[in-house]
Amino acid sequence: MKKRLFAALAASALLIVAPALYAQQFPSKPVRIVAPYPPGGPSDSVIRAVAERMRVTLGQPVLIENKPGAGTAIGSDYVAASPPDGYTLLFAGSAMTMLPAVAKVNYDPVKNFAPISGILELAEVLVVRSDLPVTSVKELVDYMKKNPGKVNFANAGTGTVTYFQAEELRAFSGTDFTNVPYKGAAPALQDLLGGRIQATYDGMSSIGPHISSGAVRALAVAMPRRSSALPNVPTMAEIGYPQQEAVAWAGLLAPAGTPKEVIERLHLAVVDAVNDPGVQTRLRGMGGEPASSTPEALGERVRRETEKWPRMARTLGIKPE
């Protein structure tokens, strides 16, 4: 009897100590971050800047694996089904919570992931090609009403921030245009510059240089206040479209069930990276604002947006594909 009791107590003690020992040993091999975007775009640049610093903190290589497609669903599905051991992570953003509102996906943003930390926030800018004869949102709306279906908007993928912003503009302005989905912001921007697309919403990180060069014209920013980078460009709220305020976010998630101690270790590494002056300079240079957070705060954001976007999709008459 005493032997069985002793064995039971020993087993219980092992269960208590094992997670702590695992966390102390973690990571013992390279950590992989899945970026559900094409290489070369602004999102890809963000996570590579953070990963470089995480490598120093964790003492192991932090590798980026791009798995673009299906509006970020391919990469999100992959991580959701990965072992919950902390070695396969998801560089997630607003699209992960938006996509289930407009398409069938195999993951649940709340149930299938364990939040680690936020990384940055980024406001979108409504831009048009310089050869489009409009200099304001009002002129763009008037032009689209006079030329229904002739303006092509690019978005970074069905269910992304830029997809919803274009659909909101369509609904609230009463205009008709083609909303073209791409596999990420980089190819969308390429077609905008190439003349196959006339308008899009994009972050300052990628669109800023082309605004400066005169290739595209900024009409408005989709944020509560004017951007310090574009002080003369009005907000969408200023010109009568308050519902267009949208701040994209990016953060790091692990598969659900990842040990709490591992999440804490990864959280500290992300916070250290985001707070690093060099990384902050790079993030701000991309047009973003560094925004690390607690796992709980990121989890609440994911939950809140997972409930929000289906409601918006119903309001806009968007049905899941």
Structural account:
The protein is α/β, with parallel strands linked by helices and 321 residues long. It folds into 2 domains: 29-122 and 248-316, D-Maltodextrin-Binding Protein, domain 2, CATH 3.40.190.150; 123-244, D-Maltodextrin-Binding Protein, domain 2. It has helices at residues 2-25, 42-58, 73-80, 94-98, 137-146, 161-173, 185-194, 204-213, 260-275, 277-285, 295-316, and strands at 31-35, 62-66, 88-93, 113-129, 152-155, 178-181, 199-203, 216-222, 247-255, 289-290. Strands 1, 2, 3, 4, 5, 6, 7, 8, 9 and 10 form a 10-stranded mixed sheet that branches. It starts with a helix and ends in a 5-residue tail after the last helix.
Briefly summarize what is shown:
Helix content is 45%, strand content 20%. It has 321 residues and is an alpha/beta fold.
Keywords:
321 residues, alpha/beta, D-Maltodextrin-Binding Protein, domain 2, 2 domains, ten-stranded mixed β-sheet, 11 helices
List the helices and strands and how they pair.
Layout: H1 2-25, E1 31-35, H2 42-58, E2 62-66, H3 73-80, E3 88-93, H4 94-98, E4 113-129, H5 137-146, E5 152-155, H6 161-173, E6 178-181, H7 185-194, E7 199-203, H8 204-213, E8 216-222, E9 247-255, H9 260-275, H10 277-285, E10 289-290, H11 295-316
Helix pairs in contact: 1-9, 2-9
CATH class membership of the largest domain: Alpha Beta
What portion of the residues fall into strands of 2 or more residues?
A: 15-25%
Which value, in Å, is the CA radius of gyration?
22 Å
Number of strands: 10
Q: So, the CATH homologous superfamily of the largest domain?
A: Bordetella uptake gene, domain 1
Bulk shape = globular
Q: What can be said about the biggest beta sheet?
A: 10 strands, mixed
Task: Provide the succession of SSEs.
Answer: HEHEHEHEHEHEHEHEEHHEH
What is the count of distinct domains? 2
Low-pLDDT stretches are none
